[in-house]
Amino acid sequence: MIGHPGWGQIDKTADPAGYVEYLRKVSALDLVQVWKLKSIQLMAVEPGQRVLDAGCGSGDEVIALARIVGERGTSVGVDASEAMIGEARRRAQDAGVRVELKIGDAHALPFPDASFDAARIERTLQHLANPDRAIAELRRVTRAGGRVVAADPDWATLTVDAPDEEASAVVVRAHVTHVTNGTMGRQLRRRFIDAGFEDVAFKPMAFAVTDLAVADPIVGLTEGAGEAVGDGMISAGRAQAWLDSLKAADSRGRFVASLTGFIVSGRVPAA
Ligand SMILES: C[S@@+](CC[C@H](N)C(=O)[O-])C[C@H]1O[C@@H](n2cnc3c(N)ncnc32)[C@H](O)[C@@H]1O
């Protein structure tokens, strides 16, 4: 699911609801909620403002932002997927908040210049063909002095405690190559500086999971092992032995996997 090319075209996949469910599982982690809150705080949003979440997925952060900007403000979400926008619409309705939701491409945001006070993009640049183009678009639609925030994991930072450390490294390597921009996390700071943002701040945040059943669908251990086998990087037998060792560790309460995500924020300079 993580390295699946379908993230760029969810509506064309066999199971758009599976992607919504993936986001739900990730959001269920307490630390992910802390990371999302931090990324929203860095936008420095005030009541009455107009704000954007690009690649908004199922819309939880559009809703959170709507609560901050209040009745006088406007929270806007844009996503390439109709299924995601539909889910976001349902959630906003259930939450009883007013939001604006649009199907659109982060590479060519369907908004005029300087039409937002602040903007964010979370776990989406990793899937884009041209992340710099999307960052330039976020800068274009945000007014001078407004803050833009981006958050992405860096899949090369995935660690798993297994006796076959070499197999762990191979699986992680395979996984990185199956995400369009698998090491986006570490690249965020330089991309924001290159895009001309001022006052660029960059924060890492590490996530650890000690339950294999929780970790596997989120960080893709079985998926990564399959990718490594498919790419001829490891034998099927060794990959299975590696997965079995994780299950054995888990059954003894000794499983651990961790991943580092990064958040960058920058201010749009005066024209
Ligand atoms: C991993 S999800 C993250 C969703 C949400 N930001 C979150 O953190 O829960 C990536 C999202 O990016 C969207 N996406 C992929 N390519 C896009 C594009 N070119 N323009 C806009 N959205 C895109 C997908 O439809 C998906 O909803």
Say which molecules are bound, naming each kind only once.
Answer: S-adenosylmethionine
Measure the end-to-end span.
Answer: 41 Å
**Low-pLDDT ranges:** none
Helix content: 40-55%
> Could you name the CATH homologous superfamily?
Vaccinia Virus protein VP39
In total, the number of domains comes to 1
Q: Main sheet: which strands, in order across? A: 3-2-1-4-5-7-6
Coarse shape: globular
Beta-strand residue percentage? 15-25%
At CATH level 3, the topology is: Rossmann fold
Description:
It is a single chain. Helices cover 44% and strands 24% of the residues. The chain is α/β, with parallel strands linked by helices and 271 residues long. It has a single domain (5-267), classed as Vaccinia Virus protein VP39 (Rossmann fold), CATH 3.40.50.150. A seven-stranded mixed sheet has the order 3-2-1-4-5-7-6, sandwiched between helices. Strand 4 (116-122), helix 5 and strand 5 form a beta-alpha-beta unit. The radius of gyration is 19 Å and the shape is globular. It starts with 15 loop residues before the first helix and ends with a strand. 45% of the residues are buried. The model has no long low-confidence stretch (mean pLDDT 96). The chain binds S-adenosylmethionine. S-adenosylmethionine binds at residues 7-8, 10, 23, 55-57, 79-81, 84, 105-107, 122-124, 127-128.
Write the layout of secondary structure elements.
Blueprint: H1 16-27, H2 30-41, E1 50-54, H3 60-69, E2 74-79, H4 82-95, E3 100-103, E4 116-122, H5 131-141, E5 142-160, H6 165-178, H7 184-194, E6 198-209, H8 212-230, H9 236-251, E7 257-267
Parallel strand pairs: 1-2, 1-4, 2-3, 4-5
Antiparallel strand pairs: 5-7, 6-7
Helix pairs in contact: 6-8, 8-9
The structure holds S-adenosylmethionine.
